[in-house]
């Protein structure tokens, strides 16, 4: 039951995070994933009967279907979602049965050996299903709304400021667009030293930008900023220079997505889902020790409280010999 509930929590928290991306929602989704992994790691130790194990796994995987009941009442049957649930259930079932088989054939109860068998497979199954939900929500179900796109772009631009300052130390995506282009132009021109140009445009540049009088510097900065702005507008369309640069990027993305055909949007959705899976899988591998540690503490607590104990089983073994 706990395994089924933890699986349901992971799916519902993932849905909530996709609808409203927040730091708190991300932490709740991570906590649900840790619970799912820890409980799933303990299941092969506690359930010996394969039929019961298979039933528990199927219930755990199919219980989240309740959260998608509205998807089955529409005109279009959610075939991809059903296939995703089936693949998810098969992967979880295989992981638990394999771990249970290892427990049964082991001479001693070895917790970490079993945990390293089942946990990566459970994580792969859950993250594959979560990536499928990302694809369906943002590409098929229309969850990637203009408001959400704008929020993601602005949040990404805000977190990318340190990288931007590494290239242009005075620039920020919080700046107005006009000021941003002028700052980038100034930084680029300040890096240039003689000879700066080969031909007949602005011969004074052969002296080096730093040696020019301030009025000439400002004129060149303004000209370079206009060229950068025109390059940006060729991609993004007309731009209000009073807007913050992060809002200009959000507007550019919105205009670009509006020009894409449906097939291209779905292809981008697939690529995005694969990138999400790869990223989450890499991050999940860094949290395995946390999941294993929590599961191990619960494992030991079961013995300390007398809820579980180790029994020794003597089994006969048949073999054939040739006299």
Report on the structure:
With 323 residues, the chain is mostly helical. It contains 11 helices and no strands. The protein has helices spanning 2-19, 23-46, 50-62, 79-105, 111-140, 146-159, 161-167, 177-190, 214-236, 245-258, 262-304. Helix 2 packs across helix 5 (111-140) and helix 8 (177-190) crosses helix 9. The longest helix has 43 residues, at 262-304. Residues 193-206 have low confidence and may be disordered.
Task: List descriptors.
0% strand, 11 helices, 323 residues, elongated, mainly alpha
Strand content: under 5%
Series of secondary-structure elements, N-terminal to C-terminal: HHHHHHHHHHH
State the end-to-end CA separation: 54 Å
Number of helices: 11
Question: Helices and strands in order, then pairings?
Answer:
Elements: H1 2-19, H2 23-46, H3 50-62, H4 79-105, H5 111-140, H6 146-159, H7 161-167, H8 177-190, H9 214-236, H10 245-258, H11 262-304
Helix pairs in contact: 1-2, 1-3, 1-5, 2-4, 2-5, 2-11, 3-4, 4-5, 5-11, 6-10, 8-9
Provide a concise account of the structure shown.
With 323 residues, the protein is mostly helical. Helices cover 70% and strands 0% of the residues.
């Amino acid at each position: 039951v706990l395994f089924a509930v933890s699986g349901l929590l992971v799916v519902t928290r993932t849905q909530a995070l996709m609808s409203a991306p927040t730091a708190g929602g991300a932490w709740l989704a991570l906590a649900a994933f840790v619970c799912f992994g820890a409980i799933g790691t303990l299941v092969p130790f506690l359930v010996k009967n394969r039929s019961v194990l298979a039933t528990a796994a199927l219930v755990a995987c199919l219980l989240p279907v309740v959260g998608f009941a509205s998807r089955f009442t529409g005109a279009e049957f959610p075939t991809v979602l059903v296939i995703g649930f089936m693949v998810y259930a098969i992967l979880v079932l295989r992981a638990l049965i394999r771990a249970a088989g290892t427990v049964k054939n082991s001479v001693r109860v070895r917790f970490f050996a079993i945990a390293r068998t089942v946990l990566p497979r459970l994580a792969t199954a859950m993250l594959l299903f979560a990536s499928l939900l990302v694809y369906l929500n943002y590409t098929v179900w229309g969850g990637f709304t203009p408001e959400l796109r704008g929020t993601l772009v602005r949040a990404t631009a805000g977190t990318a400021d340190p990288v931007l300052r590494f290239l242009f130390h005075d620039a920020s995506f919080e700046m107005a667009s006009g000021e941003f282009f002028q700052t980038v132009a100034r930084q680029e021109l300040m890096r240039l030293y003689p000879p700066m140009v080969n031909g007949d445009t602005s011969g004074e540049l052969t002296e080096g930008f730093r040696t020019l009088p301030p009025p000439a510097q400002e004129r060149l900065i303004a000209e370079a900023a206009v060229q950068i702005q025109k390059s940006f507008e060729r991609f993004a369309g007309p731009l209000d220079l009073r807007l913050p640069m992060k809002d200009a990027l959000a507007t550019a993305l919105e205009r670009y997505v509006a020009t894409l055909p449906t097939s291209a949007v779905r292809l981008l959705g697939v690529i995005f889902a694969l990138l999400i899976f790869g990223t989450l899988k890499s991050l999940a591998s860094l949290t395995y020790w946390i999941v294993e540690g929590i599961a191990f503490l619960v494992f030991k607590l079961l013995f300390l409280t007398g809820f579980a104990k180790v029994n020794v089983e003597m089994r006969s073994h048949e073999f054939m010999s040739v006299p």
